[in-house]
Design a protein that fits this description.
The protein is of the alpha/beta class. The protein has 13 helices and 16 strands. The longest helix has 17 residues. The structure holds NADP nicotinamide-adenine-dinucleotide phosphate.
Length: 430
């Protein structure tokens, strides 16, 4: 008799409904590739009466999704509810404790509880799979865990959020202000009704923490990470960047320097002829620098039901093939919290935009503030503002310590010639 594994899907929203339909349609192809029948035993969501674009056979509906963790014949539970707490957390913890394989697309849950969940999965010899939690359809997790296993990774970075990348690209291409670009993204379905976590960096941070942990064999570090969002970027910054030969991109970067890891999420000016600067719209791209392979680039759709299902099916096939692995590459017993450091000592060139009263002596005072903090000017452009009473000074600095720029900004903010909060964007040589 053919081997069969019984699956329960919990959550039938955007992702769950597509995954359910895809799995039903492609059951035979998946069987041919894994030699195991993927049998959907039950499905569940919040409400049975909700209108969906497919009919739910009554006998497949599980009234209480938590029952799935207790039914003996259930082998695999696919959690597609979302959120780090509440029903998703309850379901995944209980499923793993009861020796069910778990597949999830839930980056918030994995970033927060991934270490604990991986420990339970390893103890109970079941899979805990989360390829879909990072960059939708891009197979970055499996690439780190399998394809790049021989390599020593020293940097992993990229554009890890499609919504914010669409907004910045459209501000650049269509000359839209941030608010209008966000509205357009919502209209086109590229931004959720509440896109807060896409814009304030929390979404990228969750993905980056998971990648850092996999790349550097470390427990997840939720404390040591710099997170800055894109809300302050305006059309003037986009235009200034273009004139200086850059694009503004929202990046996530994890890098190891002398065995200390820095995790950071922030907008950055990137040379307009670089690979990352050309990733536009909702696309994501991840670049891994490792030894001996060198640079590896993965680019693709970072969200949406189809791409996310592609990753979920990859996780499913891994389980159907009986490929039980440690969720974070190495055994929980061998994982340690690596040494992390803050961004303070890291050196950057930066873009500074200072909107000032157009008065004599201001430039020399700004130069003095910078020199007092060991920061020097590489390039300076002064533009009158529309009302001509003020001026907008754009400075590109030589490399200086992050902590020095914090001091420069704090001093400048106190000056009575500053008319608007100074802008500060790191320049990234990637
Ligand atoms: N959307 C994307 O492009 C994308 C990409 C990558 C990863 N993800 C991740 O995939 C997961 C699902 O996202 P989504 O966009 O599909 O979300 P969604 O459309 O909001 O769907 C959530 C589903 O969870 C169900 N649910 C909510 N509360 C529940 C409860 N208490 N008990 C049982 N079911 C409950 C809902 O039931 P009802 O249908 O009855 O309301 C709904 O079916 C999230 O972790 C998300 O981060 C999404």
């Amino acid at each position: 008799m053919n081997k069969k594994m019984n699956i329960v899907i919990v959550g039938l929203g955007n992702i769950g409904s597509y995954f359910y339909s895809y799995l039903r349609k492609n059951k035979n192809i998946i069987f041919n590739k894994t030699n195991t029948i993927p049998n959907i035993l039950f499905i569940s969501a919040k409400s049975l009466s909700k209108k969906r674009n497919f009919t739910i056979p009554k006998k497949m509906w599980l009234k209480n999704y938590m029952t799935s963790t207790k039914i003996k014949s259930v082998d695999i539970i696919v959690e597609l509810i979302g959120g780090a707490e509440g029903p998703a957390k309850k379901l995944v913890f209980e499923a793993l404790r009861n020796k069910k394989h778990v597949i999830t697309a839930n980056k918030a849950l994995v970033a927060k509880y991934g270490d604990q969940l991986a420990k339970i999965a390893e103890k109970n010899k079941v899979n805990f799979e989360f390829e879909a939690a990072v960059c939708g359809g891009i197979p970055i997790i499996r690439s780190i865990k399998e394809g790049l296993i021989a390599n020593n990774i020293n940097k992993i970075y990229g554009i890890l959020n499609g919504t914010s990348n669409y907004i910045l690209s459209s501000m650049d291409k269509d000359k839209l202000e941030y608010k209008d670009s966000l509205l357009k993204a919502k209209k086109l379905g590229y931004a959720e009704s509440n896109p807060e976590s896409d814009l304030n960096g929390e979404d990228v941070a969750s993905k980056l923490k998971i990648l850092t942990s996999l790349a550097f064999n470390s427990f997840i570090n939720n404390k040591s990470i710099l997170i800055e969002g894109i809300r302050d970027i305006d059309q003037i910054d986009i235009n200034n960047a273009n004139q200086l030969g850059y694009k503004i991109k929202f990046v996530g970067v994890a890098e190891s320097n002398k065995n200390k890891i820095i995790q950071r999420v922030h907008p950055a000016l990137i040379k307009n002829n670089s690979y990352i600067a050309k990733i536009n719209g909702v696309l994501n791209a991840v670049i891994v620098e490792s030894n001996p392979v060198g640079q590896t680039v993965l680019q693709g759709e970072g969200a949406g039901a189809g791409p996310t299902t592609s990753s979920l099916i990859s996780d499913l096939c891994s389980i159907l093939r009986g490929n039980i692995k440690f969720p974070f590459v190495i055994s929980d017993k061998k994982r340690r919290l690596a040494s992390f450091e803050s961004i303070n000592n890291k050196k950057f060139s930066v873009y500074l935009r200072l909107d000032v009263k157009d008065k004599h002596g201001i430039l020399s005072d700004i130069a003095k503030v910078m020199a007092n903090n060991n920061v020097s000017i590489k390039r300076l452009v002064q533009n009158p503002t529309i009302n001509k009473k003020n001026a907008s000074i754009v400075i590109i600095t030589h490399q200086g310590k992050s902590s020095s720029f914090v001091k420069v900004l704090a001093s400048l903010k106190k000056k009575n010639y500053i008319v608007k909060n100074p802008k500060f964007i790191r320049i990234e040589n990637i």
